[in-house]
């Protein structure tokens, strides 16, 4: 028999559904009097002015601004409800924190409310962003998330340029914004930023967090999208020990004439097996390659970047490493921008998985899963 919690959730769902249905306009043939449903006169509820209403806040969340190497960064933290589990909280780190924080914080809260979820498995959310009210700092993220070519390889070229109009066009189109953010910076600012950024995460941020709340060092997950996905893969290849779980959503493997690939090849050559198991999930939208695009320039970029085949090829290339559980998941009907949402939900599940089991959706795969 369903328990009280299930009944409460069902009641809330029914109430919400009833509210939604009541807001629909009735058909003319069966329209009721305007005030019949409420049994009173219209306009009797005094609502306060919106400007006087309090701001919406994410429970148990904080943010701090800190200056690192001349760059003002903003760190967002959302903690699960107390008490902390004896082993500490799992932690999910999200790049592009200004855009990602509230999404991940709410997904973690939703996960905690699911029946059967152990509170000890709900992750703390740590989102890494910049001291701005904008969703993205395009120049700063490119400086932080891109890498220098491996020694002996050709220098990485500048990203594909785009016009200022393209960079800010169509704010409602997430695919436009994400692709154009990857195309803005000049080459001079993006040579060694990834290593500086990961130094900060490993040597400053993680020890600081461990002093602020109980952290389960065995369950730390890194999530990044696009350029952030590129950094996530780079971190996995060059600092595998820093995190146990990696989720790269639509990673920009194309960047710098595929400058990441030599790092992957070196990693596989030098790493027969990992001392500690690591999970890697690479996601990509099915519409990112081969889908019709009415904009000729965007169609050209899509063809050149080969997001889907590059993601599959990357995962296939790391399969020889024992102890690395890697999967490429192609998410149907999603493009470069919209793939963030299902990928974020998967990342929360992965971050919440018990340490003794392989994280969900990350069993070994040859990258062919659709």
Automatic annotation (TrEMBL):
Residues 287-306 are annotated as: Disordered. It comes from the Bacteria. Residues 1-31 form the signal peptide. SUPFAM superfamilies: alpha/beta-Hydrolases. Its EC number is 2.3.1.122, 2.3.1.20. Pfam families: Esterase. The keyword Transmembrane does not apply. Keywords: Hydrolase, Signal. InterPro entries: AB_hydrolase_fold, Esterase-like, Siderophore_Hydrolase_D, TAT_signal. It catalyses: an acyl-CoA + a 1,2-diacyl-sn-glycerol = a triacyl-sn-glycerol + CoA; 2 alpha,alpha'-trehalose 6-mycolate = alpha,alpha'-trehalose 6,6'-bismycolate + alpha,alpha-trehalose. It is an enzyme of class 2 (transferase). Belongs to the esterase D family. This is Acyl-CoA:diacylglycerol acyltransferase. The lineage of its organism: Bacteria, Pseudomonadati, Pseudomonadota, Betaproteobacteria, Burkholderiales.
């Amino acid at each position: 028999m369903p328990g009280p919690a299930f009944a409460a959730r069902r009641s809330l769902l029914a109430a919400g559904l009833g509210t939604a249905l009541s807001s629909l306009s009735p058909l003319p043939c069966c329209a009721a009097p305007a005030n019949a449903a409420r049994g009173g006169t219209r306009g009797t509820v005094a609502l306060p002015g919106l400007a006087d209403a309090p701001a919406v806040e994410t429970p148990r969340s904080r943010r701090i601004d800190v200056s690192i190497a001349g760059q003002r960064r903003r760190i967002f933290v959302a903690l699960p409800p107390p008490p902390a589990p004896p082993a500490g909280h799992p932690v999910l780190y999200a790049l592009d924190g200004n855009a990602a924080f509230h999404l991940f914080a709410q997904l973690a809260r939703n996960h905690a409310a699911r029946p059967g979820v152990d509170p000890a498995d709900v992750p703390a959310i740590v989102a890494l962003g910049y001291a701005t009210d904008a969703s993205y700092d395009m120049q700063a993220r490119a400086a932080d998330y891109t890498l220098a070519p491996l020694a002996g390889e050709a220098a990485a070229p500048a990203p594909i340029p785009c016009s200022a109009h393209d960079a800010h066009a169509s704010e409602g189109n997430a695919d436009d914004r994400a692709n154009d953010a990857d195309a803005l910076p000049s080459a001079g600012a993006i040579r060694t930023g990834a290593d500086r950024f990961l130094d900060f995460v490993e040597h400053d941020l993680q020890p600081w967090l461990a002093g602020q709340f109980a952290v389960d060092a065995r369950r730390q997950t890194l999530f990044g999208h696009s350029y952030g996905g590129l950094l996530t893969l780079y971190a996995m290849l060059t600092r595998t020990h820093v995190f146990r779980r990696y989720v790269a959503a639509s990673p920009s493997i194309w960047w710098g004439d595929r400058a990441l690939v030599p790092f992957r090849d070196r990693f596989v050559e030098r790493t027969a097996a990992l001392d500690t198991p690591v999970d890697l999930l690479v996601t990509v939208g099915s519409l990112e390659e081969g889908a019709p695009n009415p904009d000729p320039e965007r169609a050209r970029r899509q063809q050149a970047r080969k997001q889907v085949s590059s993601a599959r090829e990357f995962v296939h290339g790391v399969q020889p490493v024992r102890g690395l559980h890697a999967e490429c998941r192609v998410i149907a009907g999603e493009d470069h921008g919209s793939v963030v949402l299902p990928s974020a939900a998967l990342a929360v599940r992965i971050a919440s998985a018990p340490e003794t089991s392989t994280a969900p959706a990350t069993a070994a795969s040859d990258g062919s899963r659709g």
